[in-house]
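To whoever is on call:

I kicked off a structure prediction for a single chain this morning and the downstream step that reads the tokens threw a length-mismatch warning. I double-checked the sequence; it's 110 residues and nothing unusual in it as far as I can see. Pasting both halves so you can look.
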Amino acid sequence: MHLLLVWILSALSLLIAAYVLPSVEIGSFGTAMIAAALIGLLNATLGFLLRLIVFPLTWLLPGLVYLVCDAIMIYIVSRILRDFAVRNFTAAFLCALVVAVVNILLGGLL
């Protein structure tokens, strides 16, 4: 049940990011759910390897490294899904930032 709530929260965070940022577009809530699942899957696999490679930088810039890794995952997923569009990497980084802030704010409700 907790996993389902986190998944829905991630999809809502993506929808809020798309509402706030004009360079991020999501077609529907279903697309946001699929995007959230793919981002989670990529974070669990490719994101782990990426964080392992940039581990020395984590000591210097911990939050920035995680945001960049999340932005890379969002950018990759935007290239996979048709109804999820992110114009460039800067937009993906801002999307990751908005998603992180929304997850922090809404995560307290869980």
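Update from on-call: the warning came from a stale cache, not from the record. Cleared it. Sanity check on the structure: The longest strand covers residues 24-26.
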